[in-house]
Design goal:
By secondary structure, this protein is an alpha+beta fold. Helix content is about 35%, strand content about 20%. The chain folds into two domains: about 90 residues, Phosphorylase Kinase, domain 1 (2-Layer Sandwich); about 240 residues, Transferase(Phosphotransferase) domain 1 (Transferase(Phosphotransferase), domain 1). This is dual-specificity kinase.
Length: about 350
């Protein structure tokens, strides 16, 4: 408590609340007495690896800020300082993450028009970063924030059998579709032979799992997974194990091409036998097999959730979720897809 009181006396008149917490540290909502506005201060733990990631994030944010004219959907850094071995980064204050919004909405899907609007902004951010030769590497709903916390309640027609008096008959929909991407601590510049593991598990591209090296397309795969999650309310690949993850991909998207499986590194090679994925023979348990078998094909999954624009969305997702990163859509190409032809932002 003394640390936060001391911090408040140094940089802000008042700490209003704790906005979030993670392995890196905490995010506090504070009043900035100089700018006379509410800000979010990310306080990073005083441990070497977290300090190093924070300094990378600051460098990336400052570089992005030099090129960002305010329309590229990256969070704005206000300031930063080192306080008692804690890196503190001051950001503009934003609303909840897409994940938090889904969670508080009982993991119910977003309307398709909102998915379209959010998807376009997300791809604009990714295209902007890729043009600057930067790869985010950790795109996920937790790292995409709504600009505003405001929402409206609308009838949930998928639960229309329930009475309007039942609170679960209604679901929340954000008033504004405006988003910004955060957390650039894992961002890297494009270079050769990037083989280390990146991305949070559910949003990790196949080339990362298979040890084939990765580049810009790993962000595109993550975007595809995020768009599916916004349509369904749940993560597409809910797993924590490599072989099961790859088997889930095959269940949803079809077989992994042989020319990719032939190139896997020695660590991932144990998941391949006779030129195909070692599944279900290599499954860790019956539960693992059931988890894979219950997944529908991508087309069926989307058609279960989306009434309008399903065909365009499926075609777009098939381009974002191609196994071969060389064949995957770029962010710029994805933005030209017919799915985004009717985008109209809610301010």
């Amino acid at each position: 408590m003394f640390f936060f009181l001391s911090l408040a006396s140094t940089v802000a008149d008042k700490i209003h609340s704790k906005m979030g917490e993670g392995t890196f540290g905490q995010v506090l909502e504070c009043w900035d007495r100089e700018r006379k506005e509410m800000v979010a201060i990310k306080i990073v733990r005083g441990i070497k690896k977290y300090r190093e990631a924070a300094m990378i994030e600051i460098e990336v944010l400052q570089h992005l800020g030099k090129h960002d004219k305010g329309s590229n959907r990256c969070v704005q850094i206000r300031d930063w300082f080192d306080y008692r071995n804690h890196i503190c980064i001051v950001f503009e204050k934003l609303g909840p993450s897409l994940y938090d919004f889904l969670r508080k909405n009982n993991y119910r899907s977003f309307p398709i028009d909102l998915v379209r609007e959010i998807g376009r902004q997300l791809l604009e951010c990714v295209a902007f970063m890729h043009d600057l030769r930067m790869i985010h590497t950790d795109l996920k709903p937790e790292n995409i924030l709504l600009v505003s916390s405001d929402y409206v309640k609308v009838p949930d027609y998928k639960n229309s059998s329930r009475s309007p008096k039942d609170i679960s008959y209604f679901k929340r929909v954000p008033k504004s579709s405006s988003i910004k991407v955060i957390d650039f601590g894992s961002t890297t510049y494009e270079r050769q032979d990037q083989n280390y593991i990146v991305s949070t598990r559910h949003y990790r591209a196949p080339e990362v799992i298979l040890g084939l090296g990765w580049s810009y397309p790993c962000d595109i795969w993550s975007v595809g997974c995020i768009l599916v999650e916004l349509c369904t309310g749940e993560a597409l690949f809910q797993t924590h194990e490599n072989l099961e993850h790859l088997a889930m991909m095959e269940r949803v998207l079809g077989p992994i091409p042989q020319h990719i499986l032939k190139r896997v590194d020695r660590h991932a090679g144990k998941h391949v036998r006779r030129g195909r994925l070692d599944w279900p023979e290599g499954a860790a348990s019956r539960e693992s097999m059931k988890a894979v078998l219950k997944l529908p094909r991508l087309q069926n999954l989307i058609m279960q959730q989306v009434d309008q624009s399903a065909g365009d969305l499926i075609h777009l997702l098939q381009g974002l979720l191609r196994y071969d990163p060389l064949d995957r859509l770029t962010a710029r190409a994805a933005l030209r897809h017919p799915f985004f032809a009717k985008v109209q932002l809610r301010r």
